[in-house]
Amino acid sequence: MDELLARAMQGVDPDAPDAFLRVFLNLMALVPWATLFWWNLLFLAVGALLGWWRGRTAEGIAWALVLGPIGWLIILGKPRRKMPPPLPK
């Protein structure tokens, strides 16, 4: 914990008016953004696939975007959408 606090406070004057912003930016620099981005794309792809399988592609993408893998469980819990009858000729 001391190491994390030291990294967050690196180069920050606690008495400066922008100290909170500097600490926040230091903490955000520690987050692996590229890895999170690729995991999110994987969650969306699986959500789209599960949604397509259930006849609810847009719903699958939306739930996966909002909740990640938990959204997969929601889309799997919903019944398959029935296909509408064909139009008369």
TrEMBL record:
* Alphabetic keyword roster: Membrane, Transmembrane, Transmembrane helix
Asked whether the keyword Membrane is assigned, the reply is: yes
Q: Which domain of life is it from?
A: Bacteria
Its transmembrane ranges are: 30-54, 60-77
Specify the protein name: DUF2628 domain-containing protein
Q: Which organism is it from?
A: Frateuria flava
